[in-house]
Structure formats: structure tokens, C-alpha cells
Amino acid sequence: MNANTSRQSPAEWEEGAQLFDRTTRDLPADRHRFHKERMMAQIHELQQQDERTAPAKNRRFRLPRPAIVLPAMAAAVAAAVVAGVVTSGNGGGVEAGGGVATGPALTTQVGAATTKGVPQLLDQISLAAAEGDHPTVKPGQYIYIESKTADSFLKSVDDKTTLAGHALHRRQMWKSPDGTKGWLIDPAVNDSPEGETLSLPDEQGNTPKANLNGPSYDYLAKLTTDPDALLAKIYKETKGQGNSPDQEAFTTIGDLLGESYPPADLYPALFKAAAKIPGVVVVDDAVDAVGRRGVAVARLDETSGEREEWIFDRKSHVFLGERSVQVKRNTGVEALIKPGTVTFTSAILNRAVVDDIKQTPSRSQAG
């Protein structure tokens, strides 16, 4: 996409920004911030290249996938940023309302990956998922998920782009099974300790329909549990998204493992479906956001050079969290994201069914 060829009216810019905000506010904010900052830096670089090149040439613009954001939403934001609506003069407007400290980028040793043992590991994980305690969510109840997250991101201030990181912080989310009611406490989204509502309709009167990229528990309960049919549905409904069909399918399943609550029958089916995606590997040593070591099921995005890792306890095979690690060197502004950079990391600390919004579970309810 040429930075000079995608222009919108002010009303369209405003609509694009609102679409992004209302689609992503109930999802891991750090990941969205990382992608938004990266996108801003890329567009800035494209604009500089266009200024230096006469006549201007069409250039390939790769938009990194913001987790659980539909392509139309991401495109709207891209256009808004190109047009100058989303600015970074204060170090990134997305930080302005947050209470998360910034500092150095997160780094790690890039663990060795192998295809050996992938089916066996995913089979063990699937069996553990099937045997785990997984209560059904009833109408009037809420899914509670507590996690800790941190990230690294490209930060653009005026004409300078640097790599920075957001500190590890606690995130609490409540969602009704139909997805229409909820609450979020996350200092990266709202610095009020009380948090903010996720209930629908939103401020613009919209009630988005649940889908694979924005699922409710009720939506997930209706999905097929046949691994082949499930994977086929994922490929079909995410067609055209991400950097490749295989990577998008892997990422979609990973998003469902993180901040959602797949029903008991669907949970093991997701792992069986993941085993059928080409390019899936095992990373024998991976660490989640709070330092718990485990084994990871992972896949490398050949376009971005970033490896997405789902981390499991080595003995119980319980899902611990996920992280994205830069594995390959990049060019241009993304060369700042060196191999070993952890662009996103999370740890699931508590996942349970509770009887009221903003209620925290007892030890016996914790999952």
C-alpha cells in the first residue's frame, strides 16, 4: 500500500478509529498496542521512502495481525494512521490513558525448535484437556479470567522510532456466556482501579455478532468438535487474514486458548486440529510471563519472523500462557526488533466460572 494513495474523509477517519477501539478493548491491550505502534512506524517509514522516491512506487505493506481484529477493522486503522489521525507525538497516543510503566524491551534466549514429537505432545495435551475440570457456564454466570501480560513494541516519537516495553501487569476480565455483558480491569486500557464495562451494545449502539475472532462461550459451544471439520471452518472463516492461511489458523486457535473459555468438548478438539496444521513445532524450553517454565507448541510466521508459542506445564500439560518471540532478523524499521525480542507474553493465573460480574473466584472455583 502506498502511503499517499489511501486517503479518507475526516468522518471516515473517525469511524475507523472507533471501529478499532470498540473491537479491541476487551482483548489483551498490550498485543494491540504493539501492533499499532509497529504499524505506525512502518507507515512512517513508507512515507519517508515516498518522499525520497520520484516518481513514487507502489510498495508492499504488511500489516501485522492484531489478535482478534477483523481485517476491515485493521484496514480502517491503517488508513486512519496514514491520514494522520492517529499520532505518536507524545510517545504513542495509545499510552496516554494507561497506567503501565514503559521500559526496556523484553528479551529471551531463542529456544531450539523441532518437528519431532509434535503429534505425541499435542495428543497428551488433548487428553489432559479432556480430563480436566471444566464446568458448564450457565445463563446469569460469568467467565472470569485473570492473567498477567507484558510486551515490547516499536515506539514512534516525531521522527524517531525506538524499541520499548510495557511492564508486567495484572489483567482481569469477566464475560457473560452470550458475550453481551462484561467488565475489564487492566491498567493498560484504563487507569481507573475500578476498570470499565464491556457490556453491549457499545457506546455507538453496536452489538457485534460473535465469531471466531471475537467468540462468546455460547458461540464456541455450537462449534463442531470434529478436528477436521473444525480446522476446515477455521481456514474458511479466516481466509485472507494474516500472513498465511496456516499461520492464521494457528493464531486463531491460540487466541481461543488464551482469553476465552472453550467448552469441555471443544477444548481437546482445538489441540487435535492444531496438530494438523503444517509447520507446527515443539520448543522444549519456554517461559511464560510470570517465569513458569514449560514446553511449547509453536509456529514460525515466515513473513514477520515471529514465533508464536503456546506454553504448557511439562508434567500436567495444563496451558500456562503464550508468548511471541522474534526469531528472524528483519529489515527497515523492524530491524529494531532483534531476534530474542519477546513482543508479547502472557500467563493465565485463574480461569473460573463465577456467579456475578466483578466477583473473584474462591480457591475451589479456580481453574
Folded structure, characterized:
Strands 1, 2, 3, 4, 5, 6, 7, 8, 9, 10 and 11 form an eleven-stranded antiparallel β-sheet that branches. The chain is 29% helix and 23% strand. The chain is globular and about 50 Å long. It is built from eight helices and eleven strands. With 367 residues, it is an alpha+beta fold.
Give a summary of the structure in a few sentences.
This protein has 367 residues and is α+β, with helices and mostly antiparallel strands. The protein is built from eight helices and eleven strands. α1 crosses α3 and α4 runs antiparallel to α8.
Structural class comes to: alpha+beta
Low-confidence stretches: 1-27, 32-38, 40-97
Overall, the morphology is globular
Q: What value does the Rg take, in angstroms?
A: 20 Å
What is the number of beta strands?
A: 11
Number of separate helices: 8
User: Roughly what is the average pLDDT, rounded to an integer?
Assistant: 79
Helix and strand element order? HHHEEHEEEEHHHHEEEEE
Instruction: State the helicity in percent bands.
Output: 25-40%
How many angstroms separate the termini? 45 Å
Q: How many strands, what sense, and barrel or not for the largest sheet?
A: 11 strands, antiparallel
Percent of residues in beta strands: 15-25%
